[in-house]
Design goal:
17% strand, 6-stranded antiparallel beta sheet, 13 helices, 442 residues, alpha+beta, globular, 6-stranded mixed beta sheet, 32% helix
Amino acid sequence: MTRVTVVGGGLAGCEAALQLAAVGHSVRLIEMRPSRTTEAHQSDRLGELVCTNSFKSESPENAHGQLKREMRALGSLLLRSADASRVAAGSALAVDRRIFSERMTEAVESESLIEVVREECTELPDGPTILATGPLTSGALFSAIERALGDGGLAFFDAIAPIVHRDSLDESIVFAAGRFDEDADYLNCPMDQAEYEAFITALNSAEGHAGHDWDNVPYFEGCLPVEVSASRGAETLRFGPMKPIGLTDPRTGARPWAVVQLRREDRAGQMWNMVGFQTRLRTGEQRRVFSTIPGLADAEFLRWGSIHRNSYLNFPMRLTSHGALPERPDFLFAGQLTGVEGYTESAASGILAGINMCRMLEGEEPVVPPPTTMLGGLYQYLRDAAPGNFQPMNSNWGLVDPLAKRIKNKQEKRVLLAERAQSDFLEWMRTHGLTVSAAAQE
């Protein structure tokens, strides 16, 4: 069997490596940490989560939930690791990030056909390669990619939310609840109108980190810094991450004017993430502004919010429909570097890259799921997006082909889209000789 190089030990790289090893190919998995780290990573473990600890909804009627069903059918390592490290988060799949990355690392390092090499890759490797170095690709390697693509590439900035300690919260104010009586897996900091308006005023006056022309930064719209959202209008946050719909303040019996939600980060329930509060603010300003949130006056911040540069490629302009260099069909890109945005999207692209590398090594043509499926819809977007306006994309039902019949009811429409997607995905797998994983059949 042919040896394949996989560059990047994140979610996509790990998934690709295991797909290759599963059919007997030896893999050289190159990961630069710990010899060289990034501004976002904190350990040398494979599959480390550097932003949120949530993989979003598991409901199949939700686009993210349907993508997970497709990934489970393909035997996703991410989902096996997530199942082993799950923490309560309502209908969302959230994990203890330390346990999660330990499971990812153990699964890869225990595979005899995978050699994990800890060194920085500064040039594009020769031979069959999957490059999945993610949005924090090192400067030297990104320069090599730019030279190969003949283009300057694109970039956006991403931000991380703070984490607070559970024991430091004001129990007389903060209450546990999920929206519309869902499981009480979130902690909620309620605000009345005056408190909300005071918070927005404080946020709008806070000082951010210098060193970049922040007004011209092309942020990914799905992960805007909280202060950028607030600058777009006084009510923007109240209709975004601070929306109070479906929640009742037990102190008043009424819906709050606005609410800050905290999501569990670890199984012990000591660390809680401020949902939607990714930020570029200076540390002192975060302390000043976020301490005005009811219930967080004396909060102990275990991690401050931060911002870092993320890079991605102009997929529709420079890559083939399955993510290869046109001049090197056996050189595939996977993960967030391709322009998919999100943990599961990145991992799913790694699975598909692994499948296609296996096919090409066996003399078969690469394949992509049909655009009626969520994974196929993502790749349709990557292939067909306008190159001049290309931006990263999360899973959403707008990516898949519309139903033959127009359905007005949104819930009914999503159910039908999910049923069609699952049926078409399993048929695609059967057509191309892919075995549905045992976990997906349970």
